[in-house]
Amino acid sequence: MRFDEAYLGNVFIGACPDLESSKIVIFGMPMDWTASFRPGSRFGPKRIREASLVLEEYSPYLRRELSEVNYYDAGDIPLPFGNPEKSTAAIGEFVDRIMQRKKMPLGIGGEHLVTWPVVRTIYKYHRELAVIHLDAHADLRTDYEGEKLSHATPLRKIAELLGPENVYQFGIRSGTREEFAYAEREKIHFHPFEVLSPLKEELSGLRGRPVYITVDIDVLDPAFAPGTGTPEPGGITSGELLEAIHTIARSGVEVVGADLVEVAPVYDPTEQTPVTAAKVIREMLLGFY
């Protein structure tokens, strides 16, 4: 599918059919090739779009409506099954076309490895880039079982590209001893367990800077998002995640891209996980852009 080709599948609620008049491009990254526990996140983008139809287009939190924001749903990037190297290259090329058109990317995963090629591409256009990462897992490994391209490694790659001091991590409650030691040693802005309080403190130092936001749905406690490949007890509530998105939106940082990843719908027959993910994306659209 060409980037400018009309997407005839299901689209996120309220999406504009015209690419040129849109400021934001939504796109799916249906990849779970390196899942370490339970696969299935490649079905996340489609199900989140379908779940978005249950939402209202008006946000009472931000007092804005989706009709006030032009965004285009480009569909899912066709990715070669089982090949993380070619898949990440394809994602990077796709995002580069978005950036060339001076539009903002909003990605839907897929496993968390998909964030790496997106950030790597945006960094070419925004050299002062910082990344805000909300997740249960540190994702700071150099490899997972010998595989360097893994959903356990994207934030390590990002830290090495941007500089660790430009990475801000919140809600982390799982990782190896080495990952936690790396974060401390390399001066990552590392905030295990908590999100809201440290996020509010850190945002003042990011005001005016280009920032990329990546949200792994498992930052939520499994009670609020059971539909994910690597659930981790002890997380935040869906209300706290929404408040975090609103806090970023009102902070004055320049959001230049965002994603939400790791929704695996098959593990949640109640569908609360894709519905929650869709609502978070709605608030991103209305708050960040």
UniProtKB/TrEMBL annotation:
Pfam family, one: Arginase
CDD domains, per the entry: Agmatinase-like_2 (cd11593)
Domain of life of the organism encoding this protein: Bacteria
Keywords, comma-separated and alphabetical: Hydrolase, Metal-binding
Signal peptide boundaries: none
Keyword Transcription regulation: no
Keyword Cytoplasm: no
InterPro entries tied to this protein: Agmatinase-rel (IPR005925), Ureohydrolase (IPR006035), Ureohydrolase_dom_sf (IPR023696), Ureohydrolase_Mn_BS (IPR020855)
Annotated family: Belongs to the arginase family. Agmatinase subfamily.
Cross-referenced NCBIfam families: agmatinase (TIGR01230)
Protein name, as recorded: Agmatinase
Organism: Kroppenstedtia guangzhouensis
